[in-house]
Amino acid sequence: MTNQAILCEVALAKLLPMHLFLTDQGRILSIGPTLSKLLPMLSNGLHGVLANARAGQKPEPLEAIRKAVDKQTRLFLRVQQSADLVLRGHGVRVAPDRMLVNLGFGIGLHHAVRIADLDDADFAPSELAMELLFLQEANRGVLTELSRFNQQLASAREVALLEAQTDPLTALGNRRALETVLARALRSDLKQRPFALMHMDLDHFKQVNDRLGHKAGDDLLQAVGQVLRNHIRREDVAARIGGDEFVMVLRGMTCQTALAHLADRIICVIQDLSPPELGDLGVSASMGIIIWTHVKEETPMGLLELADAALYQSKRTGRGRATFWT
Amino acid sequence: MNSLINRGIEEFLRTTYGDTLVQAVAQDTHSHSGMVAPLGAGFGLSALHRAAMRLCKPFTELVEDMGAWMTRIEPVRRLLRFSGRDFKDFLLRLEELPGRAHLVLPSLQLPRLQIDAVDDSVWVKMLDPDDHWRFVLVGLIRGMADDYGALCLISTVDQLIRIDIWDEKFSEGRMFTLYNTAG
């Protein structure tokens, strides 16, 4: 046997900076420089510094080392002063009562680096420690960037959704918003509350555009939008669904008297908005109101048609009034 | 992936030249295409070209500045410091850079590099010619020389970058520990 490799202590320390060389009785013969940096007390002995980390086995470290060496199994040793750091390794018997153990950090690497202030020179070049640390930080960086980008996307989507359902002129909802609200309000499986739908159309609005210009028309529509906003509650919805056509969905409103009163008030305020230049043919509003108590299945479009029929009735009987669908 | 590079370009212009320039460049880009740019797409290379024009600065110089700027971003600087225990080691191991980048961002295609060294001179050769990356790399090397505290001369011709190290320990350099003190 001439090809035996015999290492002096200096070479051993260089090659295996995490080694532990000890007798079967637990006397420490040599400790690698990195292990020694991590566990300065180890030179006094294993006791109180390391413990067997394998569940279901005795904590006695020397016994764990002997067992791992003789049975050629993996060794797991918990650092007593820092319970979440477990070193792992394996060992060989180099003389009848002498064991050489080589340890490593595994997943607790980051923790060990922090505790012992380790640097590049503390790791053997063959170890992947630096790469693992690199990856850990690189991943964190990329994930942070990604989640930042995701958040940005989510808020951009929210803005886009809101814009897609908003009438840019009056800032009320648009037809799409109304259809969404109605579809939900009409769903029988959700046990939705009854509601009232007011369909409103301005009277003589065309006059404003024709005689005073489109700017005056737009100003008036904006003012009407503000009037509607002022007369509904937070849970209600107002939308402009066409040129001078507006719809309000009033949740829980089933009292015909209260609704008629509300309609009169809105019509009255809109009449006050009428530009004086128009004279007798001033702007007003006609309404068709429907109180929906889920008596039967209905679609948003169907409901709007019913309200439109009532609205037409208002127009036919002299404008500037509200008619209930019955 | 592009969104990350685009964000890098935008952040570089913002921190170096301020909001006004970024807005001007964004407006140039919008008026050019005639519509609102999709999220994160407003700041590609074309934005960098426009910024160079507005700043009356050679484009390659701006790209180089961006490379140096990257080394002043702490997370990026740390990742670069992981790949070399000193400046010379960092240069000699630049060959690993595309591999390291690929490990983190598989979609980021960095050109392959080949390193040659004689005494205190190091040559970085681009195996896949790419002028953008070449000047980013020049800036990056310049920034890392500062970080390690090394004094060197950097020049580039064709697809070669030459670094002559005069003094590896010219100054203190910036602190670096393997564990991240920032958390």
Describe the fold and architecture.
The complex is a heterodimer of chains A (326) and B (183). Chain A has ten helices and eleven strands. With 326 residues, chain A is an alpha+beta fold. In chain A, a hairpin with a 4-residue loop joins strand 8 and strand 9. In chain A, helix 7 (205-212) runs antiparallel to helix 8 and helix 8 runs antiparallel to helix 9. Chain A is rod-shaped, with a radius of gyration of 41 Å. The mean pLDDT of chain A is 91. Chain B contains eight helices and four strands, in the order H-H-H-H-H-H-H-E-E-H-E-E. Chain B folds into two domains: 2-57, no CATH class; 74-167, Alpha-Beta Complex (H-NOX domain), CATH 3.90.1520.10. The model of chain B has no long low-confidence stretch (mean pLDDT 88). Chain B is of the alpha+beta class and 183 residues long. Chains A and B meet through helix 4 and helix 5 of A and helix 1, helix 5 and helix 7 of B.
Percent strand of chain B equals 5-15%
Structural domains of chain B: how many = 2
- CATH class (first level) name of the largest domain in chain B: Alpha Beta
Instruction: Extract low-pLDDT stretches of chain A.
Output: none
Number of strand elements of chain B: 4
The CA-CA distance between the termini of chain B, in Å, is 25 Å
Which helices and strands occur, and which strands form pairs?
The complex is a heterodimer of chains A (326) and B (183).
Chain A: H1 9-15, E1 19-23, E2 28-31, H2 33-38, E3 50-52, H3 61-71, E4 75-79, E5 86-95, E6 98-104, H4 109-116, H5 129-164, H6 175-185, E7 195-203, H7 205-212, H8 214-231, E8 237-240, E9 245-251, H9 256-273, E10 284-292, H10 300-316, E11 322-324
Parallel strand pairs in A: 10-11
Antiparallel strand pairs in A: 1-2, 1-6, 3-4, 4-5, 5-6, 7-9, 7-10, 8-9
Helix pairs in contact in A: 7-8, 8-9
Chain B: H1 2-17, H2 19-33, H3 45-55, H4 59-70, H5 74-81, H6 87-92, H7 97-104, E1 113-118, E2 121-126, H8 131-148, E3 151-157, E4 160-167
Task: Tag the structure with descriptive keywords.
heterodimer, A: 326 residues, alpha+beta, Alpha-Beta Plaits, 2 domains, five-stranded mixed sheet, 11 strands, 20% strand, B: 183 residues, H-NOX domain, 8 helices, 4 strands, 51% helix, globular
